[in-house]
Amino acid sequence: MRRMILAGGVVALALLIPAAPATAQAATPGLDAACQTVERKLFKDIRELITIDLETATDVEIRVVANRILAAAKTDSLPVLPGAIQDRLDGTADDLRAFLKKGVQTAWTVALRISVNRTMTDAGANVQAAAQKVLGNGTIDAFLTYLNEDLYTARALDCASQPTPTASASPSTTPSATPSTSPSATASTSPSATTTATPAATPSASTDAPAGEDGEDGGLPVTGTDTGTMAGVGGALLLLGGAGYLIGRRRRSRFVA
Questions:
Q1: 135 lies in which domain range?
Q2: Would you say residue 171 lies in a domain?
Q3: Are strands 29-31 and 37-39 parallel, antiparallel or unpaired?
Q4: Helix, strand or coil for residue 123?
Q5: Cα separation of 213 and 221, whole Å?
Q6: d(CA 142, CA 46)
Q7: Is residue 90 situated within a structural domain?
Q8: How many independent structural domains does the chain possess?
Q9: Model-level pTM?
Q10: What's the CA gap between 118 and 135, in Å, rounded?
Q11: 3-state secondary structure of 39
Q12: CA-closest candidate to residue 148, choices 47, 40, 71, 76
């Protein structure tokens, strides 16, 4: 029971130890696949984590080393290797010891090769050439050198040779769209509506008014105050004429008599 508690404490301590070197290594800037400046992802050389004699080490020491390698593999997002180590940790102590002696480097090499292949996706010519060269070599040291150094050098060359479409696209599209639509719509609609509608209505109203007042050209006869005055004068003249006629007739009849 005491041995198991001791082993658990040592394993927990081992998981914390690799964190400091990994954080320190991730401080160097570089370019990512989108040519954006980021902190470099540095792959750990797990051979540096095997600091014991695997032949004479105790089972607890073997598990501590295995957990350190597992933590480094997960930090580097390596394929294959984390699953292989976890399977051995779940197995017997002898299987884990044998895996650390030989199998771990085989699984690690496969994981590094896959990581190199991943960098070629949508990559430029310089990255493609550097990756192909490393894959032809096939050694662990070549893979680590490429992933930690040569990849960023080749990517910087590819990014430097790329055109800059963002700077040329923005000025050409925005100014051409705004002046061509807004001014043309405002200038074509507002003046035409104002000049054609207003003058056409004003002359027609001014020419029709005199025809209505004089009663000419189909206009209505004038009524109102002037008509009443003329009717009164006419009536007065008619009465005077009638009175004159009667007086004249009487005088004539007297003369005849």
A1: 2-161
A2: no
A3: antiparallel
A4: coil
A5: 8
A6: 14
A7: yes
A8: 1
A9: 0.56
A10: 12
A11: strand
A12: 40
